[in-house]
Every structure is written in structure tokens, then in C-alpha cells.
Amino acid sequence: MSGVWMGMPAFPEAAREALADGQLRANLRTATGTIRAKRAAVVGERADWERLRLAGRAIKDRALRDLDTYLVRLEERVTEAGGVVHWARDAAEANRVVIELVRAAGSDEVVKVKSMATQEIELNEALADAGITAHETDLAELIVQLGQDRPSHILVPAIHRNRSQIRDLFRRAMPGAPADLTDDPVALAAAAREHLRRKFLSAKVAVSGANFAVAETGSLVVVESEGNGRMCLTLPEVLISVVGIEKVVPTWADLEVMLQLLPRSSTGERMNPYTSTWRGVTPGDGPREFHLVLLDNGRTAALADDIGRDALRCIRCSACLNVCPVYERTGGHAYGSVYPGPIGAILTPQLRGVDADPVSASLPYASTLCGACYEVCPVLIDIPKALTHLRGQVVDAHRGKPSAERLGMGLAAWVFARAGRFAAAQRLAALGGRVLARKGRIGRLPGPLAGWSDARDAPVPAEETFREWWLKNRGESR
Q1: Cα separation, 91 vs 356, whole angstroms
Q2: Residue 223 pairs with which residues in a beta bridge?
Q3: 461: left (phi over 0), alpha (psi -120 to 50) or beta
Q4: Res 477 pLDDT > 60
């Protein structure tokens, strides 16, 4: 996870810029509020919702506990069904496999199903460097691609744009878009459909991810709302699926639970409009070749962490984003990663490493720890607990390194070590406070301390310290 996101500022700086965009905040407030209401309605219909969440957690935990066994079983079943399995330790290996397969098919373009895994490894950019054009077919991903933009939401990548902005983008960047295109959703969808139809009918290779991979049968599952994904999964001659190793579930019966949790948590629907499953190849029906690329890219490192491994339960529903007060005000771009919001704040530092870059080090702090994300997570990931755990890792990673905070704490330790030093510091603070005071309050502290007083009231220190009072009234020093 570098390239496109490389050089992004740490979360506090990026969030400050996002907060200044009133249109962005309005778009996010409207979209997340709508999704929250829909989710609450369909979840409220299920008296057994908490039991479903417990079952979902148990399924994912069982899969992660014996992940090696289930991955080998998945490989065996896919191979038996005529597919080919490739193992990729990192993004570079996964991209190399896909590029070689596309070239072997004699193609210089691919159509793509919406996939977080391929965004994570920045496959589109790798394909472009190899002279291969990738066409996103999910409507929201198409919007992001046409705008040369970054996704800002797991479920709705273009959530930061409203209909008028999308209309203007289509007019400007979509080949064949009507000059009089309106911002009516039906008209926008029709324009995208006309644009994509030519791609579906001509592409020889498709690339997908998967929501789930079933070890028992070798089946892969993709859920979607538009049907464009199914066109990619069935029409091209070659299908390549890039899937994170944590997406495996043990049995076909486990899907009964997961397919009740996912649509309710993500789109606020009882079931997805399109649920596609496939295994291997079938002569005369669908792609002639199927390749499964199983992606690690930091997942085994996360699996080794007793607390951090819980993030691998994630089924990418985005419910945590839709309830997060931080995400609703900053949007997804501020997180500097393909995985935004609360789940991104714990997943990205684990996949990259908490000390990999300033973004990863800042993300565990991109939260109020209010717990709303934990309350809605369909597989009960305790995100606040993971955030505090990762904050500890950030501190440990920077322990001993020079910093303003370390210098300040060292100075404080020196002052507190002797009563005389502490008394002198109190007198100095009282004198300085009276100099800076305005109407009983310190308006702004000098230097780096201004960041503290800008967000808080700073009372003027008392003219007489407690130690001085005690000495005067009790006649002894402590």
C-alpha cells in the first residue's frame, strides 16, 4: 500500500484540510445518515441479531485459528474444479502474477469487479505501468477512476461527491456521455451502462476480488448491487481473482450466517441484489480459465498479534465508517490509505507496520474511542481495544527517539525531582500566567504550548501556591 497513497500527510494534517471543505462534510453527512437509518431498520427486524453477530465472530475466529488448514483445503478444491491457485507474499508478487496472466491471454486491457484487495496492492497502477488498461465497472469505482481520484469509503468509494459533481464529471471525462446529461440518478446510471457495455463485450480478461472463499467447496463469492460484477465474472475468457487470505470461511453452511450479516450491515438491505458464486471452470459456460491469487501482504503479521488479529475478521461492510463521528467530518481521504474509517485505523498500521510511515503511526489516534464502531460491527471487532493496543505499539516503536514530547517529559522529570526546582517552576508559571492573562484567562500560551490553549481554557495560576500557603499557615515545609 504505497504508490498512489505515498506522501500523504499524517491524519491530523489531512483531517484539518478536510474539515475546511464544507461541501465534503455536507455530502458525507447526508450519505452516512441515510445508510445508518437503513441499516438500523433492517437490523431491528431481527430478534436474533446479536446471536448472528456471535455466530459470525465464531466463524471468522475458527477460520483464522486454523487458517493454514483451510487455505490448503481451498487450494485443493479450486484445483480439483479446474482452477489454478497462485500464492502472493506481497503486492509486488500479486501484481506480477496478474500482469503475466493478462499478457499470456494476449490482452492489453481488463475489466474489473470492485475489489478492496486490488486497490490495496494498487493493481491498476501496476497494470498501467505494464501497458495494460484497467476498466472499473462498479459505478462508484468508475466515478473515482474517471475523476483520477482516490476512493474514500469501503462500500461507496465516491461518497465524497454529490450527483451534480458526478454529472459534471461524466460530461467532462466519460466518452460518449450526452452533452445534456442531467444529475438524475437514472440518467447517470444509463450513461454509465452505455459506456460499460462495450467494455463487457470486448474484454478477454476480468479481475475480481471476493467477499468470501469457501474452503469446503472451493467456491468464491461476490456480492454486489448493480450486476456489473456478474458481467465481469461470466463474459470474459479469463477470470483472475485476487483474494486476501483472511477471506476464507470453513464451510458452505457458514455463508448462511455471513450473507445475513453483510448486506444488512453494509447497504441496509435484507439481501444483496446480486450474489455470485463460482468454483473453477465449467466447459462451455463462463470463463475458460480461472486463476485465484491468494494474497498475504502483511496479514500473517497481523495474525500473529493476539489483539490485532481481530481486524482480520472484517467482512468490509463499512458499518463502522457510517457511525464514526470522525469519519463523518473528515471523509476517507484523510486516512491516507485504501482502508479508511475505524477499521482502516487498525488494519492499515498492521498491514504496513505502525512505524512504516507518519500515516500509519497517526491512524491509531484518529478516533475518539467512543465505541460506536464496536456496537455496529457485525463480527464484533473491538476496534477501540485494538486502537489503544496499537497506540502502545506506536509509543514502543518511538521509544528512545528524540522528540519534543520526550524533551518535555525529561524536563518535567528534572523539575519534579527536587522540591526547590518544583517551587521555582510554580513561581515562574504564576508570574508568566499573570503577564499573559486577559480577563481572568490566558488567551494563548506561547510557542508549541499554543496548541493546548487554542482548544482549552487556561486559567491564570494562583498568586500563592499551596506550598507557600502551607508554609505560611502551618509553619513547616513538606
Answers
A1: 16
A2: 275
A3: beta
A4: no
Could you tell me where in the chain the CATH 3.40.50.10420 domains are found?
49-301
The number of CA neighbours under 13 Å toward the Cβ of 106 is 1
Q: Which CATH architecture has domain 49-301?
A: 3-Layer(aba) Sandwich (3.40)
The whole-angstrom separation of Cα 350 and Cα 394 is 11
Most confident of 136-145, 432-441, 444-453: 136-145
Please give the DSSP secondary-structure letter assigned to residue 113.
Answer: -
The three cell numbers of residue 171 are: 460530461
Residues contacting 269, CB < 8 A, separation 6+: 38, 42, 263
**Cell numbers standing for residue 303:** 495474525
Cα–Cα nearest to 157, from 127, 118, 108: 118
The Cα–Cα gap between 256 and 275 comes to: 12
Neighbouring residues of 158: CB distance < 8 A, sequence distance ≥ 6: 140, 141, 143, 144, 147, 149, 151, 152, 166
State the helix-helix crossing angle for 419-436 and 404-416, rounded to 10 degrees: 120
Closest Cα partner for 346 from 294, 377, 380, 391? Answer: 391
Residues 6+ apart with CB under 8 A from 233: 113, 206, 208, 222, 239, 276, 278, 286, 287
Average of per-residue pLDDT across 467-473:
84
- CA-nearest of 86, 152, 134 to 291 is 86
| Alpha-carbon Rg for the chain in angstroms | 27
For residue 276 the three cell numbers come to 455470485
The whole-angstrom separation of Cα 24 and Cα 28 is 6
**Mean pLDDT calculated for residue range 58-85:** 98
Pair 112, 232: CB distance under 8 Å: yes
DSSP 76-96: HHHHHTT-EEEEESSHHHHHH
- So what's the pLDDT on residue 432? 73
457 in Cβ contact with 433 (< 8 Å): no
Amino acid in position 152: S
* Cβ-count burial 61-83 (b if 16+ within 10 Å, e if not): bebbeebeebbebbbebbeebeb
pLDDT digits (tens, 9 = 90+) for 365-382: 999 999 999 999 999 999
Q: If we measure between CA atoms, which residue out of 238, 225, 229, 235 comes closest to residue 201?
A: 235
